[in-house]
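Q: What does the assembly look like in three dimensions?
Context provided by user:
Components: two
Sequences:
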Amino acid sequence: MLRRHLLSLALGTVLAFGAGTARAQEFILVQSTTSTQNSGLFDHILPIFQEKTGIEVRVVAVGTGQAIKNAENGDGDVLFVHAKAAEEKFVAEGHGVSRADVMYNDFVIVGPADDPAGVAGMNDVVAALSKIAEAQAPFASRGDDSGTNKAELRLWKMAGIDVQAASGGWYRETGSGMGATLNTGTGMNAYILTDRATWIAFGNKGDYRIAVEGDAKMFNQYGIILVNPEKHGHVKAEAGQAFIDWVLSDQGQAAIADFKVDGQQLFFPNAGG
Amino acid sequence: MAEAFGLILRWDRELSVIVMLSLQVTLSAVALACLIGLPLGALVGAFRFPGRGVITVLLNALMGLPPVVVGLFVYLMLSAAGPLGVLGLLYTPTAMIIAQTILVTPIIAALTKQVVEDLHGEYAEQFASFGVTARTRVAALLWDARYSLLTVALAGFGRAVAEVGAVLIVGGNINHVTRVMTTTIALETSKGNLQLALALGVLLLGLAVVVNAGVMALRVSAVRAAYA
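A: Here is the predicted structure of the complete assembly.
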C-alpha cells in the first residue's frame, strides 16, 4: 500500500516534469560566467530579449574554464565568457562558429583599509603586484582557471613573480567563484583581483575598498560564440544566433549600457569595435 | 538581518517557485530511492547468501558518497558528449532527481537492511515453521517495520534536501528552471548577501521541520487507527 503510494508519487512527479519540458516554449542554453550572473546583468537584459523574440534564455553561470569545457561537450548553445585567448582557441578547434566582442569592464584590486602592502591609489598594476609580493601580504586568487584567474596569472607573469612558489603561504588559491573568493579573501585580510562589476554588486564589502585601478592591462573583454552545430547536431543554431545578433545589435548594446548598480554602469558595450 | 527575514516573509512568487522545486525534486528522489532501497535493504537484511557481507560493506560505504562526485558522475552520463546525452536531460529537474536518487538510495538500503535484520531475528522461527515464501517474508518484514522505515525515509530526505554539490552541477542553478533552496543559498552567499542567505537557510530548516512534523503526525494517527 505504502509502496504503491510511493510509486505513483514518484512516477507522477517524473511524468509531470517530462510533460513540463515538452510544453515549455523555445529556449536556449547559455554557458556563461559568474561575473555576469552575480552582478545582475542577465536579470536586466534577458527579459528584454525574451519579450522581443519569445525565446527563453537559460544561463548556467560557472567559471570561464568550466563554461568552455561544458560547451566543448556540447552542453549549451551559446558561450558568453571573458578569456579572449581561450575563446579563440575554442573557435580554432572547431567547437565554436565565430567569436564577437560584446562588452568590457575592468579588473580592480581590492584590499583592506589598513593597506598592509601600501598599494592604495596606485594605477600601475604590475608595480602594485610586485609590492604585494615583496611585503608578502596575503593575496587571494580564484585558482579555478576562470577568465579572472587567467588575467590575474598573466599580470603576475608580467611582474616576474612565481606565485606557485608562494602558494599556501601569502598566495592563497580558493579554487572557487568570484563571490566566494571575495568572501574568503576579505575574511583573511587579503588583496583580491576582481572584476569591477562583481565588486560593485557585492554585498559583503566590510572595510574593503578599491586599492588599484585604471591600468589598461586590467581591461576585461567579454566575447560571445555560437557553439558549432556541425559538431553538435542538437545545438539550437537559429535561436542561439538570434540571441547573439540581438546582444550585438543597437538595442542589445543599449540594454547592456543601461544596466546600473548604485548608479554606476558596470559593463561597457563595444560590439563591432 | 530583519530586512532579510522581511524579504522572506513577503514570500513572493520567485521564492515559492524555488521552494516548490526543492520539495518536488527531493520528495521524488526520496520516493524513487525508497522504491529501490527498501526491497534491496530488506533482501540483504532477511536472507543469507554468498557476497552478503560485501554488499553490506558496500552499501554502508556508499552512505558517504560525496554529492559533488555524484553530480560529476551524472553530468558525465547526461552530457551531450556522454552516453545518455541524447535524452537531453542535463540541466533539468529530472537530472537533479536522478542525482539525488543515487545519493539517497544507499542510505535507505543500508538503514533498511539494519532495521529488517533486527526484526528478522524475532520472526525467523515463525517464518520457518509456517514455511513462508521469500516474497511474503520480505513484505511482512517491511510492513511490520513501517514506522521505523519512515524514519529511514526521513534520513534520506534530510540528506537530499540539504545537499548542494550534486544539484548545482547537473541542474546548473538556472533561474526559474533548476534553482532550488540550497543553490540559491550558495548563490546569495557568493553575491555577498550573507543575511539573505542565512535567512533562506532558516527557511530551509523550517521546511525540514514541517516535513518531519507531517510524517510524525501521519505516524501517530496511523498508530491510533490501528488500535481504535
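Follow-up: Chain A is about 45% helix and 25% strand.
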